[in-house]
Batch of 2 targets.
Target 1
Amino acid sequence: MKGIPPLATTVVGSYPSVPNRAMLVNYCRGGIDPFPESMRQAVDAQVSAGIDIVSDGQTRNDMVRLFTTKLTGIRMRSKPVIIGEIGFKSPITAADQITARNIIGPNKLLKGIITGPFTLSMSCNDDHYGSPEKVTMAFASALNHEARELSEIVDILQIDEPYFSVEYPEYAGNIVSEIFSGIEIPKALHVCGDVAGIFPQLVELPVDILDHEFAAHPELLETITETDFSQILGYGCVRSDVNEAESVSQISERINKVLGCVGHDRLMLDPDCGLRHLSPEVAFAKLENMVRARDLVIENES
Ligand SMILES: [Zn+2]
């Protein structure tokens, strides 16, 4: 695929770089926005680790609130409540992506990330639409505006739908088509959890990259071997739920296993999921070791 190198390394999204409490309190009182600095740290860490396609680190909020606080028709409670038509007001993450782009410059690749409409729907109470499908499609229409904004800034656009592995909606194809309508850059779908049962359906979706957790679910390798698919595979090869970095040899063993069924040009390497819950030192070591493992695999092949 144009612009994406074979065996590219990337991240799913979040990175453990958050402002301290004093900075947040100061910000709430009208002080300086501390998030550009958090973002700079998150982006710098990814670049230093050697990651090819970086993210803004999603430091500003959790994946649900990042979007539900900025769309119309939603009242924020401990679980957001939909009280009217879900609509797009103004760009949500575009300014942060521009900040990230300015940090990395034009030559490094940048990934934009939008939390999936189905996951947002399942994370809210609905007092307005009366059906999860209507809520989901309303989120998809609203977030298509965000997707169009981001596609002017980033090189790859990813939607995160962790709830697909909990319950796979029969209208999944409509969701993905709607949110990605008019988008020309490479489109990725990240679904964590056990996707063995739905992988044959995921491969039918109109996306260019399918990204899943293989470190926590190595048995998925069997499923992908048995399934015909044309997408690039995002291969989660370090665990995001274990706060200890895997060794280079352990990760390279995992990479060698997938290379038996998918070639370099159809493979991207990343952690299983976002790294938000790890310590910054461990998150960095995981990324650095993943890049070294990729380089070791290539070196041993030549
Ligand atoms: Zn995930």
Note: The first strand starts at residue 8 and ends at 9.
Target 2
Amino acid sequence: MLEKLIIIGAGPAGLSAAIYASREMFNPLVIGGLAAGGQLILTSLVENYPGFPDGIDGPDLIEKMLAQAKKFGSRFVYENATAVDLDSRPFKVSAGGKDYETEAIIIATGANAKWLGIESEKKFIGRGVSNCASCDGAFYKNKNVIVAGGGDTAMEDSVFLTRFANSVTIVHRRDAFRASKMMQDRALSNPKIKVIWNSAIEEVLGDKVVTGVKLKNLVTNEVTEMKIDGVFVAIGYHPNTDIFNGKLKLDELGYLVTKDEIYTDIDGVFVAGDVADHTFRQAATASGSGVKAALAARAYLQELEAKEKPK
Ligand SMILES: Cc1cc2nc3c(=O)[nH]c(=O)nc-3n(C[C@H](O)[C@H](O)[C@H](O)COP(=O)(O)OP(=O)(O)OC[C@H]3O[C@@H](n4cnc5c(N)ncnc54)[C@H](O)[C@@H]3O)c2cc1C
């Protein structure tokens, strides 16, 4: 069966695109991936998504988006897309051992935050360990937090967190930051920020929530404990673009390169959300670009229909 529109990804971007596309009667097929729901599944309270003055749990927000998309006729396959053929039309998407053909595609495969990769970190994600300062910073009013990292994001997050926290300690593996000079200066001149150099977080400590960390000095191998209320991991993101490598333009960090946020070089292939956004990375911005991509796909499909109609 030839699909009109396939949406790859079922986070806020893909689901918002699905709501719009299905309400416009295109009944899209959403290939939502094995981790359907996306990054918001990992968080408890989302306080900055419009429409929820008391906040909403990440998984509940996703559940509502999913119900809204299904209500208007979106169909879902919970498999990872493993290959795409964008060279000929209709386009092809392979997932779960099947090949799907489609006239248009919206890519909304998001990004995964890089974590430290230590066992104790997993236990506390959403309960004191976060990788999103703008999402979770406000929970740390008058608390003491650590930021792990040494790039621009780590500097920006640290400065941002000083609005709420009493103290911010940047823990960095080396003896110099990778961040731009301007960002470093801004962080290092802030009286609430201090740095622990040449050190790595070896273990996150706590019972139900984070209460401290074990730090290892990578030069002396000395291990010390530090009391802390929160750990922000700011060591970068991995955009989920492996299957588009060589087929669409990627930037040096692996993000999809777009024109006007949602267009690719291939007519009929659109992009939404964090997979092309290393700046804002928010649920609401991802939803917004999902909506734009769905409306652009509608215009493309209508044009295609008009061209194919016998005169
Ligand atoms: C811990 C945490 C807390 C956060 N808190 C907030 C918050 O409070 N407020 C806020 O605004 N933002 C928050 N964010 C950021 C927000 O979650 C992201 O900006 C948003 O989810 C991006 O949406 P997206 O749809 O672009 O991508 P994602 O949410 O990453 O979703 C991508 C989707 O694509 C799917 N996928 C990936 N590869 C494939 C493939 N090959 N085939 C099929 N499907 C695939 C995935 O399974 C997933 O369904 C938080 C993020 C994290 C990690």
Note: The chain has two domains: 2-112+237-308, 115-233.
